[in-house]
## 1
Amino acid sequence: MKKLFTHSILAAGITLLLAAAGCQDLRLGDSFLEKAPGVDVTIDTVFSSKLYADRALVSVYATLRCGYPVHNNAWPLGSAGQFKYQRACSSIDNDVHDALTDIIDSQCNWAGAYNIYYNGSYSAETENWSSGTKFGYLTDQEGAWKCIRKAYLYINNVDRVPDMTPEEKIRRKAECKVMIAMSYLDLWRNFGGVPILKDAVEAGKEAGIDYSRQSAQAVLDFIISLLDEAAKDLPWTVPAAEDGHMTKASALGLKCRALDFAASPLFNAQAPYSPLVPKPRLGNIGKVDESKIPEMYWFGGYDPSRWEAVVTACEDFFQANAGGEYALIQASGTTSEDYRSAWNRTYADRNNGEILIHTGRYMPTFADTYQRCYFGPAEDHGNNGRGYGGGAITLNFVELFPYADGTPADYRKWVKDHNHTGTLTDNPFVGRDPRLYESVMIVGDHFQGHPIRMWDDGYEHGSAESPRAYTGFCSRKMIWDYNDETFHNKPTDYSYLRLADIWLIYAEALNEVGRKEDAYKALNQIRSRVGLPDMDDALLEKVQAGRVYPDYPGDLRGDARLREEILDERARELYFEESRLYDMIRWKRKDIFCKTLYGIHMTIKSGTYEDNNLVLNFLDPFEPTPRYWRDNWEDKWLLSAFPTNEINKGYGLVQNPGW
């Protein structure tokens, strides 16, 4: 029987992605691809019909990265349940990427952010076993290597399927190329250069494969080549019945993301992000050219043309979309509620014309995700809505949302001017960017038909000591009104890449090549669809007044204030979509990693909620427990560590600086 899949990632001697038996790896959930009684399902069987081949393709899609903490009905992973290719409770063991940024201060003291990163215990050893890291290298942590392996097997064998047309085979191969590129992009953004596999690893053929770590540039080139090849063979859109399949728009959009990361200062700088140069260890000695080790995490210098490449890629995308098949979802009116309703559709509704890549899994509704436990309000909202504190939003994030007229918000100034006193309708958070209220549970805003009680001991908040809204806020994005229509029975979807991101990438690159006015126009595409006024020099001066920016000596031409405003806009627009952390990494934002984070307390001063005469005290901000890296920052945090067990196998894997 030809073996299809994997148990461990790369080994020296090595059975890369070959340890597990075949047919079980083609199953999605409990009954994806069943054997006929008494018959072994070989790879020949799988590619003997379009029906089975299509199921094999679905199994490739099932490996793709999903940013939700997800529910799995059985343990250990893979024994049953609804989420086969990512550990239960991940993405960061109940937490999400934003818990490693200035957006969330997670209070889940058993989860990955709090238990591994906040206390500084993360190390290369952690990567050997933990599901609590931001992106695991091993196959029992993430699906990246599984995806690469499965996709190549599909590409190599689909031509044998007798009842598929040549056009179908070409298109499905192209879909697999996009998925291989996605997997490499996720690995590359977290580890820098990694081994490059250009074919499936067949049993008995491992000896001729180079498993050594490659340069950051080589991995980027490989990603771009795959996307360019795929784009030639994919349709721009697909019918609703095939929504979720990769398209040419998926390939070109992903290319924009990859080139944007490449142009940013992490890799594209006058010097490497860390002065430390790792050395090959043990069996890796002699298997890599030591003089080229910095190239594994650095491009060797700053090249401004990389920003021009981003601009070109974005313009290629928009030119291909000249017919407007993909468009930003617009509000039907001009009220805050109109903007809120429209914006909520942009990232969660399937076939919405804005999402370029979906990576939702077989979770029938959002109730099957761990949002129901970790990110919502207090426990008495039904259906196990226990509010564990994974979505304790910081005041820092709330303050990124300006007033609806575009002017900056300032909590401290408001409470000082109002003697710390406010009401449900007159408080520091009224009249803001409409996205605030759909991202964060805000006191006085509406939830399930009533004003949100986000003060200490309030119904949505819980007690002052409770982790649920420890910072005075909890997450609302992906929670909505937490009822049957908006959550419990809403079909799941995860937006891995959507059109708004392309506009913001374009704005960023335009600024860096000196086309500031064009950058404003791109940025304003996102602002205007939620009713914010157009950004210009005068407004930029107001919203960025007093800010201090990192120094990128000699490297960048962009307006630093506009660069920061675009990053702020990305945080507002793409919260909970795994954007902020990678923005901080690629821009080497030690200042954001190490900034002091804040929460607030609100208490009842007089009156009652029931009598509609409530007056609240808005207290001065407090600082949660500082994260380890605030006072112990090292640049090594910008890239993840490779697992020591993989380093020790001696197939040419060199550790990242500092680990």
## 2
Amino acid sequence: MERNRKSGSPTHAGAAPPGKPPLPPFRREAGLLLGMYVLSAVALCWVFPPDAVWPLAFVGLVPWAIATCRTQRAWLVHWGSFLVGWGFFLVSLRWLLPVTGLGYAALALYLAIYWTLTAWAIRTARRHGVSPIWSLPVVWVACEWLRATVMTGFPWLFLSHGLYRQLPLIQVSDLTGAYGVSFLAVLVNAVLVEWALQRWPAPGPRSSARQLRAGAVVAVVLLAAALGYGYFRLRQFDFDDDAALRGPRIAVVQHDFPLISRPPYGADPWVVLTSYVVLAAEAAREQPDLLVFPEATWSAYQNIEFIEQKEVVSETPRGSWAWGYACHQAISALARGDYQEANAVIAKLEQDARTVLPRLPETSGPPVAVLVGASSIEQFPEAIYPKTRQYNSALVYDRDGTQRRQRYDKNHLVPFGEFVPFFQARFLGFDLHWLYRWLNKLSPFSYGGTKDYSLTPGHELTAFELAAEAGTFRFGVPICYEDATPYLIRRFVWDGPRRRVDFLINISNDGWFLHSNELPQHLAICAFRAVENRVSIARAVNTGISGFIDPNGRIYSVVTKDGRSFGTGIIGYDIKHVYLDRRSSFYGRFGEWFAGLCLLLSAVMWLGAVFERWVLAAKNRISALLRKAGS
């Protein structure tokens, strides 16, 4: 026990400073905070597909935000938010565990930081009398935007994604992006939080009742405006009935070949190739304008430059040319309807496979344009290191079996899945390749560090042309995770006010995630890209979910089996018209203006917290030292 210098009265260690209310017992405060935090985390886990209990998006944050505002120990709020946020992401992203246990835990740990940043901001605002009604939606959107961009970005589990089936509400995405839908959901949470704080007062500054009334009015007005705008947009076109809005007929092909993150990684590639070709031949008989395979399912270097080059440099894997040439022959024969030639290729592969492989019908089929996901490789024999550049690509075969020289190379690569950081990197003149070698050894795809598997990103957003009965159309092919990246898809579709493509085709290989919740979550995210840019999207995905999304975000057809859209054994194809939309998009033209504004306002709150806690605290300590020295 020590004595207060001014009053001489005894003060217990750990008691609140003079002028502040006493702290409640630690166990009671920590237990209440933990219970409310866990309640929010559990509720939010149910918001996202496949459960998609969407009303929880409007109330799930309430317990967490109440406890954040009421708890007096700031360190308890910050660490509690971090730990519960980590738990939330561990549960919601558990589909990553089969691919990379270490990366899964590390990613969840990083994402949890944003829960603490949000708590920090709304507490700072509340100390200045600003209600969570105004601070919580702004900072939550700012953190979603940061998650989507920092360290190549991971734009997953936005609160808006749980509302993907609520079509009237999500139409505002063509104004604000998916961030605007998250803002509306968090705003409702924040009004409920302020209502609870008015009836359950906490120590410290309190918001006025006028803020609650104003916030409730703003929430109702914005929700009504969003729904009104949504119904207006939905009624502009009836895509099903208006034949003028129908674009080309696209066939998406889906097989079921799960993958694992250790050798041999999955089924034998010749089994995968032949199974897909046989399934595609069935779809080709319905004469679609374009037949689409998923992303890189049989893992071959298939680009025409490599096939024509024939000579292989030392860094190119042995046997890769012969395998790539066989894949090229099979797809070329399929495209021109020469099933006898395709079966001849399969017969040669059987000799290597030493097993019976599926065959196509002996009769010829109709020619069809084919889009295939494959690896591409460029060789540089004269270079010292590296002698090759590898890409994750989309290739197009025309109806005569010719592969176009125009291809799309994936721009946005996945860290550690498609490239290892610091490959050929230099920083301030220092060579960091040693760091790359160490990280490469940790990857399950490098065979213990003996293989450089890192891909090279593409730099162009290729627009392919497709000639169909209804005319000639342009389309882009975002590969896999790129359809989750809002800023990349916007650049695919829009060049300022000019539309670059008529529709998109997303090719993915979600076989790494073993029929998990990742599949419906990926589909839900893709639906927002359709609304934001007013563009149809066809999806061809190994293991699913393959199907079609219209420019209003409606998922109007998917590959199913026994009424299931995801799970084991869903094999088939779907053929539908993609729809054309000539409407403009404010978001398509101006991008993340709304999220950027929220980030700017949030930065004010974070900088205010830094100034208060660190700069002013340092000033007070210096003043105290000067007074002590003067006395």
## 3
Amino acid sequence: MSRILLTTLNARYSHTSFGLRYLLANLGALRASTELVEFTINDQINDVLAEIVRRQPTIIGIGVYIWNVEPVTRLLADLRRVLPDAWLVLGGPEVSYETEQQAVTALADYVITGEGDHAFRELCERLLSGVVPVERVIAGGVPDLSTVALPYHEYTAEDIANRVVYVEASRGCPFTCEFCLSALDIPVRMFPLAEFLRAMQLLLDRGVRQFKFVDRTFNLNLRLSQAILQFFLERVEPGLFLHFELIPDRLPESLRDLIVQFPAGSLQFEIGIQTFNEEVGELISRRQDNAIAAANLHWLREHTAVHLHADLIAGLPGETLQSFAAGFDRLWSLRPHEIQVGLLKRLRGTPILRHDDAYGLVWSGHSPWEILQTACMSFEELQQVRRFARFWDLYGNSGSFQESLPLLLRSGASPFAQFMGFSTWVWEREQRRHNIALIRLYELLFEYLQECGTSADEAAVVLYRDYVRGGRRDTPAFLRGRDLPSIGKLRRVAADQHVPTRQRRHLGELPTE
């Protein structure tokens, strides 16, 4: 029996709840009577309920996010029925704003908004001592990070072997991009550097080799970013992999000098371009020098072995399909290894909502609260982009079509327009965006390339090279009987292959708010 149970529904098993581990590490004397149990949004709610009921906790703390609010709401309704005496406490980004307006918060006894590292412990201490707070909504405040216990010892051996290990050297963001919750944060605060690096060494000693930094502005404070890069550079070895989120227009020589020293496969940068439209950027208070950002991407691609993951957002106020397409084409020309196309989401409390009337923003009524249409992009246009994004992920970001994708895009002046035509064609053929077998993806591209004028022989050879690159030795049925190069001639290590694509995607797919 646990007096306190910390739990959440992660987006997938490979993810870990970083926030709950902070709460666990900062419980003080209550840590010994607390258990952390994680589930996923794909688990059956009755099964999750049974696991919680079996432990008979006195206090249940649940993390609520944009990707799990609907199943968590169902879970809370059932917990209220079968554990009527348990205290239900919510926290997380989804319930930190517009708190009183949500069905999920109405089912809870308490909601802790913002950073709950200390506030959750203080609430538990009061509840367990019989001092019941009157206020349902408790502001977590802004704790001094030197007083916050680091959570890295809470990663279990199973976590280290099978899950993403998240770390952070700082919190907050100084920028005011209106689509992002970080726009509401106070200026960046940093954890004590020496203590943080000691924790990283302990993780290395325990066998951690993949680190995902969740800092919104890793390269803002040069002293911090240089120290962290130097720390890992001195310990670099095969298998070490570091993921950082970078401000795109800030890459001074002091950082470049360190970055170029990392070997292939060890660094991934997530670079949020979001939009190249200057007017849209100004409208949403996004301060970004696009020329410098593009120059930095070009330099990273030409002079380093960093794997580059760049983001664009469709549906921003003022953005048309044509301007978004121009931004995609500009980004494609800079050759990042992945371009993640996402649709704008309505994150609770963000200033983006002030544009609803003037720019006709219409949002879905269900999580993850995606944009449905704007005054500048119709529902049908955004639906086309949604399909584009899914098929681009399968063809452009998967790493399975390294030669055949450029073959597809070479025949059009606009890569966006060319791939949009292809994605529309695939949709019309398959009438679905998910659960399409890889072999079918190859076959569809083979057919489409021929429709676009590529000879069957050229398309077959290029697709076959892509097909066997991952180690396959068979010949797809639709390519049998054609004059294909022998596998022996195709065996080589791709010069541009940094880390296995599956590993990169594994680290980069955390839904964020």
